[in-house]
Amino acid sequence: MTETLTGDARTQALAPLLAAGWALAEGWDAIEKTYEFRNFIEAFGFMARVALWAEKLDHHPEWRNVYCRVEVVLTTHDAGGLSARDVELARRMDALAATP
Amino acid sequence: MTETLTGDARTQALAPLLAAGWALAEGWDAIEKTYEFRNFIEAFGFMARVALWAEKLDHHPEWRNVYCRVEVVLTTHDAGGLSARDVELARRMDALAATP
Q1: Which residue among A48, A86, B11, B35 has its CA within the 20 to 30 Å range from the CA of A93?
Q2: Residue B2 lies in a domain
């Protein structure tokens, strides 16, 4: 069972993500971000690389793709909220998006 | 400019899709379907194959993935509704989903 992030650990983990364009979702304990790419090839190329990491980390995003746009929501269902696994995947996604 | 499907051509094109689990979307002229796979690898494997076809056909789905589930909406934006291109992509998606 993964534990949710709380207190100072949560604040410190989320601060750089919030500064990098992630936002707290409304209605549940999750973070969300929309990535925009130049075209579908870049958008889906990003998704393919994230998918491999997600499977490797055994932690998967909820995401929606419309052409060059990828909307992502991260939360940890078995923890009932945000955990360190979401922070790890969010950082990884930002790193992958930065090198298309 | 792609033309929307109308009249008998529309009825005949949509009938087999509606019988195969596609439904007309509410609020706009689009069709939607939810695919369920056994796991993320199969779900994203399906998406990867669809993505290659979508790029080849130059017609892209709006889709959302949560683990083993892929929710798809098809419409033709530059036509303002359903066109033969949606029917073609829907058939292709069903064929790909049938051979994971």
Answers
A1: B35
A2: no
